[in-house]
Amino acid sequence: MAAINLRKMAKKQSGTIISVKVGGELGRRIREMGLVPGTEITIQGRAPLNDPVALRVLGGTLTLRNNEADYITVEVDDH
Amino acid sequence: MQLKMALAGNPNAGKTTLFNRLTGARQHVGNYPGITVDHKEGCLIHENYKITITDLPGTYSMTAYSAEELVARDHLVNERPDVVINIVDASNIERNLYLTCQLLELGVPVLIALNMMDVAKARGMEVKAKLLEELLMVPVVPIVARSGSGMEELLKGCIRVATTDARWEPRIISYGDDLDNAISSLVAIIEDNDFLSDIYPSRYTAIKYLENDDQLLAKGQTENKEIGSRLENFVTEVADHSKRTLDVYPEAIIADHRYGFIKSILRQGVVTHKFDTERLYTSDRIDKVLTNRLIGPVIMLAVLFSLYQFTFSWSEFPVALLESFFSWLGGVVDSLLPDGMMKSMLISGMIDGVGGVLGFVPLIMFMFFGIAILEDSGYLARVAYMMDRIFRIFGLHGSSVMPFIVSGGIAGGCAVPGIMATRTLRSPKERMATLLTVPFMNCGAKIPVLALLIGAFFNEHKAQYMFLFTLLAWVVALFAAKIFRSTVLKGDPTPFVMELPPYRFPTLRGLFIHTWERTYQYIKKAGTVILGISILLWALMTFPSLPMEKQQQFTKEKEAILASTTQQVRNEINAGQRDLSADAQSVHNQLALIDNHQTQANLRYSIAGRVGTAFESFTQLAGFDWRTNIALIGGFAAKEVIVSTLGTAYSMGEVDADESGSLGARLRNDDNWNRVVAISALIFIMFYAPCFVTIVCIAKESSWKWAFFSLTFNTIFAFVMATAVFQVGTFLNLG
Predict the structure, then answer these.
(1) What pLDDT does B507 receive?
(2) pTM (2 decimals)?
(3) Which of B287, B358, B478, B669 is deepest in the core (most CB within 10 A)?
C-alpha cells in the first residue's frame, strides 16, 4: 500500500481516498460530490490534453482539473 | 384544497423530467430577480387538491456558494412548502442522499422519489425502497420519471405527507464527539437569544456557522451583530482546534460524517449488487470513443459543426418566410397609406422592428433545440471536459466553446443565440467573460460588410482575408476574455468538479418544452425593448427632416428637368411604365439621381447625420469621414445596415446588402478610402458596440450595467485598434 497524489494515478488505477486537504468553495465542491476519505475511486481517463481527469466515484463519473486533484491523497496498491 | 410542493434534487437526477411529467404544459418559467436562475412553477389537480409545484434548481448541496443553492434554500425557508419531493437517482444513491441529509437537517417534510429504478436494475443493483424508508424514517416511493411509472403512488404519498405529517422536524445527525459538543454550545447560545429561530432550526444554524456559510453569517450579522460575532468567534476557536489536532477543517468533518451516516444506512442491505460493479457500463463504452484522445476531438468538431449547420441552415427557410412576410406587410402598408411620416414610421420603425425581433426566433429555436439534444443526452458535459484545458488559459470554461461557435466562431453565426447559449455555463465569472466576448465574433450580419470592403479593396485575396478576419476575431475575443478575467471579472477559476452524466436518449417532450421555454423568454423579455429601440433608431435617422426650402429646391430641380423634355417623355414617366424609351430612361436616371441626393441630404440633416458630421474631426484619427460615421451609427441597428446606410450616404440610392458591387467600386474610387482605411474600418466594425439586439440580450442575461459596459468598452477598444492600424498604415504609406 502506498499513499500518492491523485494527479499521479494512472488510467484504470483504483484506490481509496485518505485525505482532502482544501477548504473554501473548492473543498466543498469536492466533498459534496462524495470525494471524502474512505471513498473508492478509479481513474477512468483523461481529456485529450491530459487535463482534466475523469474518475469513477460512487457509481457516477466526475471530472476534476489536475490542479484540483492535487489536494487529494489516495491510497493505492503497490505494483 | 391547495397544496404547495417543491421539487429538490441533484442535477441529472431526472428532476426536470419528473417536473414535466407531473405538470405537463401547465408550467410557468420566470427568472429570480437579478440572477439567471430559472424559476419554474407548475400546477396540477389531483384528488380535489390543487397542487402547485416549484422546480428548485438542481444542486448537490445546500450551502450558499452558488446562486442555485441560495435560491433553493431560500425557497424552502421562506415559502415553507407543505412537502418537498426529493428526487434521488437510485443508480447513484450514495451521492444523491447527501442532499437528502441536509434537507432532513433543515427539517422540511420530505418525501423521497427514488428515480431511475430501471437504470439501477440494468446495472445489477437492487435498491430496497421499503428498507430505506424504515431506516431513514422518511416515505420513499420508487418511480421511473421517464416512463411515468409510480406517479400515482408518488402523488398519493405527497398528499399524505402534506396533509397528515407536514411538521418541520429537524433530524439530528452526529458529527463526532468534538463537533457535537461544539454544536451543543452553539445551540445553547442560539436558543438563549432566540437567534434566527424564526427562519432556521437552531441546530441547523449551528452547523451552518461551523460550515462557514456566507449567506447565513451575513444574515446573523444583520439580525444581531453581537450574537453573530460571538458565534463566529466560537467557531474560529473550534476550527483552530480541529486544524491543530486533526489537521482538518470542521466543514470537512461534517461532510465526512454525512457520508458516514449515508454509508451506515446503505450498508444495512438497502443496496445489493447482483454482479460485478466494475463492469463497464454502456455509457463508459460510448465514452471510450467519444472522449478518446484522438478520435474524440474530431467527433466533437463534427458535432459542433453540425449544430452550427443545423441552427443556421435549417432555420434559413423559416427566417426567409418571416422576412418575406414582413416585406409583404411593408408593401401592403406602402400601397395603402399616403407618403409621409406615419408611413415611414410604420414601415421603417414598427414593421422592421417587429420583423427584427421575430427574425431571430427561428434561429433561437433551432439553436436551443440542438443544444437541448446535446445537453439532455449528456454530450455537452463531454465537450466542456475536452475543451476545458484550452479555454481555461483565457480564464474561461470548457463550456464556453458552444456560445463562441454559435456567435460566429465559424463565420456567419449570430451573437443573439450565442449569448443565450451562455446559460449552459454554471460558473458566474466564466459565464460573464463569455457573454462579453462572444459579440467580437464575425456574425452573419458582419459578413456582407466584410464582403463589401474586402471585395472592393482586396479582391485578389478574398478567401485569405475572410479567413484571416475569422481568425482575428477568435484571437481578439479570447484575449479580451483573458483581460476581463484579470481585471473587471477577476477571481479564482470556478472549480471544475463536474459530473459526466451517463448518456441518455433525450425525450422529445423534454426537448420541446426546453426549446419553447427559452424562445418564449426571448420574445417576452427582449421583444418589447428591441421594438422600442428600433423606433428610436428610425427617428434618429429621420428627424429633423430637411427644411421646406431645401425640399422645394429638390422638387424644383426635378420639375426643371421634366419641363425641359417632351410631353411624350413626361407621359411615359408619369405612367410609371417599365420599359422606357431611351430618352425617358435618361430623364428617369437624372430624376433618380436627384432623389438620391435628397435622401443623402436628409440623412445628413438628421440627428444621426449631425452626430456623424460633428465627430468627423475626431474619427479622422481612424480615417473615417462623416459618411462612414453615419453608417456606423446605423450599424447599431444591425451590422448589415452599414452597407445600405453607406449607400445612402454616397447618394447611391438603395443598396442591397448582398449586391454591393457598385458601392464597392464607388468606395474604391473615393479619395477618402484606400486599403488602410478599409482595414481600419473592418477592424472597427468587427469589434465595436454589438448591435442593440445583442445589447438587450446581454442586459437581460446579466444586467443593464454590463450591457452598457459592453457598448462603451467595445467601441473605445475598437476605435483604439482602428486608429492604431490607420496611423501606422498611413505612416508606412501602405494605402
Answers:
(1) 85
(2) 0.83
(3) B287
